[in-house]
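[audit] Reproducing an earlier prediction to check determinism. Same input, same settings, fresh worker. If the tokens differ from the archived copy the diff job will pick it up downstream; this log only records the rerun itself.
[audit] input (127 residues):
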Amino acid sequence: MSSQDIIENMARWVSSFSEDTSKNICSLYDEQASLWATLSPIKRDSASLIKDYFNQIFKYSNRHVEITDSNIRLFGDVAICNGQYTFSWFNEDVKVITAARFSFVYINKEGSWLIIEHHSSSIPLVT
């Protein structure tokens, strides 16, 4: 396996974020995945809780995410990708932009890389 596999998986995650339904983005997560999401006060540690989170986010229109920095490390059947991304969407005609940092941990199951851990948090403003 190579870093290119993870780059392609991250690209699928980014493109799925802008789709009409959460089906494709949720399919990128392993059934035992855990998600600490940017806009969630609770850990999403089941497929149904992850789906519920994305269904809430997908109510916003014109969603977009752009990865601005990333680093990939491979450890056999485990890969870690961390970095920064910027989310944007519209909420009641107001554009919302959130810069966040992320960590994705992938596990290779039978030749497919699936997200097993995903942590995302807003980047704090330092004053």
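[audit] rerun output stored. Observation attached for the diff report: The CA atoms of residues 1 and 76 lie 8 Å apart.
[audit] end
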